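Summary for the lay section of the report: proteins are chains of building blocks that fold into shapes. Here we show the chain for Phasin domain-containing protein and then a coded description of the shape we predicted for it.
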Amino acid sequence: MVAATNRKEVHMATTPNYAQFATASKQQVEKATAQFTKSVEDYTSFSKANVDAMVQAGTVLAKGFEELGKRALAYSQSSLESGAAASKAVLGVKTVRDLVDLQSSFTKAQLDSALAETAKVSELSVKVANEAFKPINARLNATMEKLSKPLAA
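The coded shape description reads as follows.
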């Protein structure tokens, strides 16, 4: 009978502790679940912003490459037309001196044109690269800011 009384006393003594333990455990699980859910939401949002930045950069690059392609095509067409015009002019020369002068002026014009076009293409390339890097740079800054917050705290 003493043993039964002791068991009952032990049971009565541990029941409040068990209830407290169960309540505390439930609260900890709920807190951990909420933190995990928030972390997943933050990660998802962060990843989506990174993907959006890459899409923006890709769009800028695609448009830039399209414009560079159009410029190259236009320059090629212009060069072909200049070459055709020079070929026709060669057929009309009367002296070797006229031929040398024609060739010299054609070569100078083509060289000047090529240098000017190269400068324009270089300028456009730098502009496209800078524009394409802006969204990526913004995400890098956001990442650095996000990573530095725990360090500063």
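Put simply, here is one thing we learned. Helices lie at 2-91, 96-152.
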